[in-house]
Batch of 2 targets.
Target 1
Amino acid sequence: MRTYLCFINYAVFCIYLNLSPKWLGVFLKNILVTGGAGFIGSHTVLCLLNGGFNVSVVDNLCNSSFESITRVESISKKTVVRHCIDITDDVALANLFQSGSFDVVVHFAGLKAVGESVSKPVEYYNSNVYGTLCLLRQMIDFDVKKLVFSSSATVYGEDAPTPYVETLPRGVTVNPYASSKAMSERLFEDFCIAQPDMSVSLLRYFNPIGAHSSGLIGENPLGVPNNLMPFMAQVAAGTRERLSVFGGDYPTPDGTCRRDYLHVMDLADGHVKALASLETPGCKVFNFGTGNPHSVLEMIHAFESVTGCVIPYDIVGRRNGDLAEFWADPTKAKNELDWVATRSVEEMIIDTWNWQILNPKGYEI
Ligand code: UD1
């Protein structure tokens, strides 16, 4: 009877461990976040701190600032160890692994502007693929066997049927940014075959937007924003005059492209949940999206109705490389990680706008 009760207690304990990030924090205590000062990285660092993890951030600050981490510390009332290091610097990275004892790496570091990747392919492959290799080498040398990778829905390529589901093969990628994500995914898959005790989760993001509800951290694009939401927020704030809607003749209900926008805090929470998937070895893939697409015109009208601002816009020619529409099948993340995106488009817009009006110059003080 006693053995039986012990077994029941043990089973309940194990189920609890699987579901609770707080308990995961007991076993996977120390997390190294590469690129942690950036948009998705900083929100994820906040969720990791709130989940009870110790976080060290490594970032070369080429497109970010540690001000985001200072603000994460003020929201969470916890501290983060910062390292200003480029992950392609082998010696500096080895010293970092030597100085800390990391249980998991969450890997965001990389370049992410699609257009720029076409004109600077060497920089993109160097940062995104070679950087990933450098990181893996240190993980091998220092026996770190768990990693979460920041991937993108772009790896499904141009011809995948919607909604995108993880069982689809990676498609033909059409720019160096997309190719660098697909190559890194392949690298992790091959590596997990060679090292059967390694666990990697590849997280394919759809279109993350929004900001933390405090308005203290958010997306801080340098120069002219490439993506829809930061551009729209700057038009609403009067920093830019008009929004160009790229294409009004797509085979979609209103002729403009449809995307699966998700709140960056839902995405950040998803990284904490993804830590549970590292308990079993192997390489896994998860889509992180809502499963509900919205068109550019729908996003403009939602922004206007939520904020009361008018967004002057012109429908112009299509942007090279844009697909008419795609969205996620997020069933696997729900079933295996217990992760669902819960925040609405309205919340995404409220939080984007709050961040924009509180920080018209981003992290520049
Ligand atoms: C882009 C990247 C994708 C990356 C993602 C990260 C391209 C082709 N794809 O996705 O690889 O993972 O960002 O967030 O760049 N739009 C306008 N006017 C604008 C800006 C955008 O009409 O000023 C439209 C675009 O044509 C698109 C939609 O808004 O239909 C969303 O664009 P964007 O925010 O740039 O995201 P994606 O292109 O979907």
Target 2
Amino acid sequence: MPTLEENVSLRPYNTFGLDVRARYFARFASADALRQLLQLPQVRAADKLILGGGSNLLFTQDFPGVVLKNEIRGLEILSEDGDSQTALVRAGAGESWHGLVEYALDQQLSGIENLSLIPGTVGAAPLQNIGAYGAELRDTFDHLEAVEIATGALRVFSAADCGFGYRESVFKNVLKHQFVVTAVVLRLHRQARPNVQYGAITETLAELGIGGEPTPQQVSQAVVHIRRSKLPDPAEIGNAGSFFKNPEISQAAFDRLKSQYPDLPGYPVPGGVKVPAGWLIERAGWKGLRRGPGAGTHGVHARQALVLVNHGGATGSEIRALAEEIIAAVRQQFAVELHPEVNIL
Ligand code: FAD
Ligand code: EPU
């Protein structure tokens, strides 16, 4: 029988390192264990938070309900397809995402090497269709298995069912809080297909002395190198990666801004232009800013303005207040609306 702990500190379970408490806390290592938990009266009655690695969460207060921590393990190759030179790989939702990337590389399978070193669990990856360095989860996604919270029923979601978008899926909007992802199945390639469209990868490969067509391992190595140089390691400085999404604005709005700020970068997307929020925040003067007593307890990362950080001792409400100030400042200076990527609780 699964156990429910009471009044548990969530500090070890969120990468901002915020010391909030959960009224109830339990772990599950299988879909069946999860179903048993969901039937407990305290769990049925309470608000539920499904927790992976806590790397995309900002707690602004204690969690008054039940935190259910996903620890479903398992990595396996389900099948090989000789014609398409692909393999289906199934991962338990509680596996670490980067562990899955390493497993794929060990099995000589490519397709997710550009997503190396993204923190968190496999099960959370579809929630916001994780993406980095020219790749997204949806590029290799085949299907996922999820347990419906209300009924305990297992449901399979195809890519189309998931409604993936930029940092979006149905699990963040129409089906929010309704399903627990228990396994993810990817279709990976036996034939390496290096994806080096993201400029920094080519530059880094050259810097690392890697010539010719890179192997998936080498692409992974380059991505790891770039990420370590830019993004703060949560083990050292509390953070949840990009705090905001990169906003998509109309072509007309982009042209107006570009005439005023000729060095504003922009990437065409259907219906407009995506602009880097990090650029807007930096240009508005917030990069490296620190708030709070002494040398500052929280602020904007000095090497990546899109990342808000807890230097130690900040509260989630303080970080949320800083985010709100940044949203207002960017709105005032550029008439662009920023939206948080991080889930604020
Ligand atoms: P959590 O933070 O535990 O949960 C996130 C949300 O998903 C919550 O709403 C939670 O309830 C829900 N959830 C979690 N697991 C499940 C499940 N099994 N079923 C249903 N709902 C669930 N993201 C990117 O896309 N690209 C990046 O390059 C990137 N870089 C990052 C760098 C750093 C340093 C950090 C700290 C974060 C970064 N992120 C990035 C964000 C984060 O790593 C991803 O969003 C990741 O997928 C979150 O996984 P998690 O297990 O930690 O999720
Ligand atoms: N930039 C600045 N100043 C900054 C930061 C960025 O001017 O302080 C500008 C530069 O012009 C740079 C551009 O922004 O060329 C893009 O910067 P970067 O390559 O660092 O990427 P990003 O847009 O800031 C996005 C994702 C990251 C992902 C990287 C790499 C979002 C919200 N963020 O960041 O994802 O790792 O691209 O692909 O889309 C995350 O989601 O948590 C995350 C870290």
